Amino acid sequence: MDFKEIRTTQHITLSDASKGICSVSMLSRWEKNQGNMDFNKAIKLLERVNIKVSEYIALNNLDIPDREARQLEIAWDAKSKKSLKCIAQESLNKFHQDQKLISLDYAALACASYQRISKINIFPVSDLNKLNKHLSKMTIWSQENLSLFQHVTNILSTSIIFQVSSQIIANFDFINEAGKDTLHFAI
Fold first, then answer.
1. CA 181 to each of CA 52, 57, 120, 164, 185: distance values in angstroms, whole numbers, following the listed order
2. Which are the contacts of 116, defined by CB distance < 8 A and separation ≥ 6?
3. Which residues of the chain form CATH 1.10.260.40?
4. Do 149 and 133 contact (CB within 8 A), yes or no?
5. At what angle are helices 101-118 and 81-98 packed, to 10 degrees?
6. Above pLDDT 90, what percent of the chain?
């Protein structure tokens, strides 16, 4: 169910939905997939039609599990050193090619998983430095970010663990505002 269906089902006009958020023409283009909407405006529009972001994501199947995470989960459940090492090396190669933070996160998760099973750390120091920098600059601690931190502590230095933990504590109000589930996850 897309935004237009949700809006029209509730008998909310384009004008009423967009009032104070965006122009009617902008909303119309967005509903027709002919334009983009600022993230904050999209959230306000969803609130206007009485739906939570998580509900909208579920209704539109936008939260598609990714193949890499599933492979890592399967290898971890099987406690397969060989599979975990292969996934870790592939993830590291991917990060070295594309230099994207999401690829760094996957590589760190895969290497940390392999290290937990094998007791061998294959995460390169240069990549660890990049991960340390990435984690130390993080200001929004979502469940995904908290989960990343939780699962890579075994490859981080104690000083980075202390620094990041201090950041999480300092941002506890934001985490609390993000919802009960995120707060419980952080605790």
1. 15, 17, 33, 20, 6
2. 154
3. 3-59
4. no
5. 160
6. 47
As a whole-number percent, the residues of the chain with pLDDT over 70 amount to 96
Q: Are the beta carbons of 75 and 111 closer than 8 angstroms?
A: no
Q: What is the pLDDT of residue 169?
A: 87
Tokens of 65: 């599990």
Q: Model's pTM, two decimal places?
A: 0.64
- Which pLDDT belongs to residue 180? 72
Q: How far apart are CA 66 and CA 99, in angstroms?
A: 19
**Long-range contacts for 29-35 (Cβ within 8 Å, ≥24 apart)?**
30/3, 31/2, 31/3, 31/4, 31/7
Q: Is 155 exposed, middle or buried (0-12, 13-18, 19+ CB in 10 A)?
A: buried
CATH number of 3-59: 1.10.260.40
Q: Residues 134-144: pLDDT tens digits?
A: 888 887 777 78
Using one digit for the tens of pLDDT, what is the confidence trace for 114-164?
999 999 999 999 999 999 998 888 877 777 888 889 999 999 989 999 998
Our CA angle for 152, 132, 183, nearest 5°, is: 55
* Rounded Cα–Cα distance for residues 105 and 147 (Å): 11
Q: What is the DSSP letter of 32?
A: T
